[in-house]
Design brief:
The chain is mainly beta and 329 residues long. The protein folds into three domains: 2-80, Membrane-bound Lytic Murein Transglycosylase D, Chain A, CATH 3.10.350.10; 126-229, Beta Barrel (Elongation Factor Tu (Ef-tu), domain 3); 249-327, Elongation Factor Tu (Ef-tu), domain 3 (Beta Barrel), CATH 2.40.30. Helix content is 14%, strand content 35%. The protein has four helices and 21 strands. The strands form six sheets. The protein has a six-stranded antiparallel beta barrel. A six-stranded antiparallel β-barrel has the order 16-17-20-19-18-21. Strands 5-11-10 form a three-stranded antiparallel β-sheet, with no helix packed on it. A hairpin with a 2-residue loop joins strand 12 and strand 13. Helix 2 packs across helix 3 (52-58). 27% of the residues are buried.
């Protein structure tokens, strides 16, 4: 009988060790480099920057996803690593139609099903990029949380203070505090950079407090972030060929106020509907120094009256605020 107990205990211990080793193999360890954030790491390792909240959840010891220490180890769940599926293009094959009296052979071509145009950018990037606006209709503020934390993500609960009576189930966009943007060349006021950090929904009212839940996170959400009305936002679809209008302007800012921008980063230009800019327009970017140096190309995906948001499609050198935009070749 004692031998059976010893064998049973040994088997349990072995299974425990095997489970631990298996669990250890389910993450990839990444060593933080200088300047890294969870956004950057998710973009590099997972090809999707918007997966950073799930990486953060795997690393609860990280207090701030934007402030990582070089040499720090970040655990990346392997289930988040996506594999791209190759989609085969439809093959056109001639089909011969034979009549009862074969005098002449007629060949009919099978028309390929039309391939729907893809949106210019994915829905997450379209919402999170926001815009530069003249003014903002603020309807509330995040004042705290039941957890007493100051940094939030999905699915945390937060306290909000609103300027009007709100109803349970009502949604709002959460914005980082809007930042005043001055033109890098003329130094004139351009507007306020509105960047969406997430989506919150009013859940309940208790003890005189209005409680909302963070449904979606695009950026870190903190106490003091503001709420604006929620409306459905669908990324635009534009058919090729894209316009290349002769409209000159400047890059005035970038998402997250980045100074150096490359492929797939978002920038904002000082030209909009009033100047004839349309969604889908492509512009060449030129760095202005002692000489004009081509730096890449951008494509507009959101247009306001006097400004537009664009994604970097080509990049040879960093695209910085003050870069000139010109007609693409």
């Amino acid at each position: 009988m004692p031998n059976k107990r010893i064998i049973l205990l040994f088997a349990i211990a072995f299974l425990g060790i095997a489970s631990f080793v298996f669990a250890q193999q389910q993450v990839k360890e990444y060593t933080v480099q200088k300047g890294d954030t969870l956004w950057d790491i998710s973009n590099k390792e997972l090809n999707d920057a918007f997966l950073w909240p799930k990486v953060w959840k795997e690393n609860p010891e990280i207090a701030n996803p934007d402030r990582l220490k070089p040499g720090q180890i970040v655990r990346i769940p392997l289930y988040l690593i996506k594999t791209e599926e190759k989609v085969e293009e439809p093959v056109l094959e001639p089909v011969a139609e034979i009549e009862s009296k074969p005098k002449k052979e007629e060949v009919k071509k099978v028309e390929a099903a039309p391939v729907p145009e893809r949106p210019l950018v994915n829905a997450n990037l379209y919402i999170a990029s926001g815009r530069i606006a003249d003014s903002i209709l603020v309807e509330g503020t995040i004042t705290g949380a039941p957890s007493m934390r100051k940094l939030f993500g999905s699915p945390d609960f937060v306290y909000v203070k609103t300027v009007r009576q709100v109803n349970s189930g009502e949604k709002f966009y959460v914005l980082k505090q809007p930042k005043l943007i001055m033109h890098p060349i003329t130094n004139a006021k351009v507007g306020y950079l509105v960047e969406v950090a997430g989506i919150a929904e009013i859940r309940k009212f208790e003890f005189g407090e209005t409680v909302a839940q963070i449904l979606t996170t695009y950026n870190d959400i903190t106490t003091g972030d503001v709420l604006i009305p929620y409306t459905e936002m669908t990324p635009p679809v534009v058919s090729k060929p894209y316009r290349k209008p002769d409209i000159k302007g400047y890059v005035v800012a970038a998402k997250d106020l980045r100074e150096n921008n490359g492929l797939f980063d978002v920038v904002y230009i000082d030209r909009g509907k009033r100047d004839g800019v349309e969604v889908g327009d492509v512009f060449r970017t030129v760095y202005i120094g002692k000489q004009k140096v081509p730096s890449g190309a951008i494509q507009v995906f959101n247009v306001e009256q006097t400004t537009s948001a664009a994604i970097v499609r080509e990049s040879t050198i960093s695209i910085i605020p003050g870069t000139m935009t010109m007609q693409a070749e």
